[in-house]
TrEMBL record:
UniProt keyword Cell inner membrane present: no
Biological processes, Gene Ontology terms: diaminopimelate biosynthetic process
Protein name: Amidohydrolase
Residues annotated to bind Mn(2+): 107, 109, 143, 170
């Protein structure tokens, strides 16, 4: 079946450049969805559009056998591209808050869409070599953490019917041509928390007549650093970041409140619960210590589940990768990034696995590694300079999906 890859490659590379040059924000993936839908229809898939807003599901039934769901996410990010690529994005769009923002495929979802369409084409052209049902699912709004759940809520189970296994993948800042699997948790659960604390405003020349929310916020930030270092076991992995603090409007005005935005990454439900409790305890205690006139407020948003790969499915997939890719099939450690992919198989009640494949020029990666400068020289996802090399990235992502699917079909 993979002998047809050169034919697929002929249109894949152009499609990738087009998608990269025309990114779309979450829930705005109308152009992308149309390209996906048109291609799936041409390949003979039964297509359902508009699932969860802009999601697309293509189903190819080919006799009795397992039903395999393969997923790609479609949305881009509000990032100004700085890759210098000839097909770089110059797109601007209006975000959900009504703000004009630059848009870029800074996370590589254009790669995911292209690879899944390529895999769908190879499966359609190679129906003599497998039997069962192939499901190609293209999901909106992964970056907001609600796209997968939105498709589920919009009747995904009725659309796809019985599913035996779900597969997903993500391009990573690793050497192109390599794939990496991991049993158990591979991506962390994530919680963004907006914390509002209250003071008493006044003139900057008379701080004694105020309760300064800036000082209160600063004390909270310092104390929050002790959670990971002093309250989490060394064998547990937790990342707690204060990404934003805002208070006041002018240098000589002490405001009456401050807003902190926190991001938490965990792999274990009990650890997550304990850390959230510690965050609340510290914030409340610091507010009391500052004699805050009002209780703090906690707003949880952009929440992602842990991606916890099924051991049996992952082992089967890894073995298939080793047989196909040889020493380019690796076992990788968990990452602290987050995904909402697992909301789909969890809702459908099916096991799943999710793997990584490299997108960085191998020679460039090797030079950076030898110089001890990977973190300085290799762009990561969400960076304005993140631009996966077209090949062998697309070939690898396409082959990985086909190889993994065929281990079930």
């Amino acid at each position: 079946m993979l002998a047809g890859l050169p034919t697929v490659r002929a249109w894949q590379e152009d499609l990738y450049r087009d998608l990269h040059e025309h990114p779309e924000l979450s829930y705005q993936e109308h152009r992308t969805a149309k390209l996906v839908s048109d291609r799936l229809n041409e390949l003979g898939y039964q297509v359902t559009e508009g699932v969860g807003g802009t999601g697309v599901v293509g189903i190819l039934r080919n006799g009795d056998g397992a039903s395999v769901l393969m997923r790609a996410d479609m949305d881009a990010l509000p990032v100004a591209e700085a890759t210098g690529l000839p097909y770089a994005s110059a797109v601007r769009a209006t975000d959900a808050a009504g703000k004009d923002v630059p848009v870029m495929h800074a996370c590589g979802h254009d790669t995911h869409v292209t690879c899944l369409l390529g895999a769908a084409a190879l499966l359609a052209d190679g129906r003599d070599h497998w039997q069962g049902t192939a499901i190609a699912l293209f999901q909106p709004a992964e970056e907001l953490g609600g796209g997968a759940a939105g498709m589920v809520a919009d009747g995904l189970a009725d659309i796809v019917g019985k599913v035996d296994v779900a597969l997903g993948q993500h391009v990573a800042p690793a050497p192109a041509g390599y794939v990496g699997t991991c049993s158990g948790p591979i991506l962390a659960a994530a919680d963004s928390i907006r914390v509002t604390v209250y003071g008493r405003g006044g003139h900057g020349s008379m701080p004694n007549a105020t309760i300064d929310p800036v000082v209160l916020a600063a004390m909270i930030v310092i104390r929050l650093q002790t959670i990971v270092s002093r309250e989490v076991a060394p064998t547990d992995t937790v990342v707690l970041t204060v990404g934003s603090i805002h208070s006041g409007t002018k240098s000589n005005i002490i405001g009456d409140h401050a807003v902190l935005e926190l991001n938490l990454r965990t792999y274990d439900a009990a650890v997550r619960t304990a850390v959230i409790a510690a965050i609340k305890r510290i914030v409340i205690a610091e507010c009391q210590a500052s004699d805050s006139p009002k209780e703090p407020e906690f707003d949880f948003y952009d929440q992602f589940p842990v991606t916890d790969n099924d051991e049996t499915v992952t082992t089967r997939t890894h073995d298939a990768f080793v047989e196909h890719f040889g020493d380019r099939a690796l076992t990788v450690p968990p990452a602290a990034a987050s995904e909402d992919f697992s909301d789909i198989p969890r809702a459908l009640g099916v096991p799943y696995t999710y793997w990584m494949f490299g997108g960085i020029d191998a020679a460039e990666f090797t030079r950076a590694a030898e110089a001890g400068r990977i973190s300085q020289d290799i762009p990561v996802n969400h960076s304005p300079t993140f631009g996966p090399v077209i090949q062998p990235t697309l070939d690898t992502g396409t082959e990985a999906l086909v190889v993994a699917a065929l281990s079930w079909l």
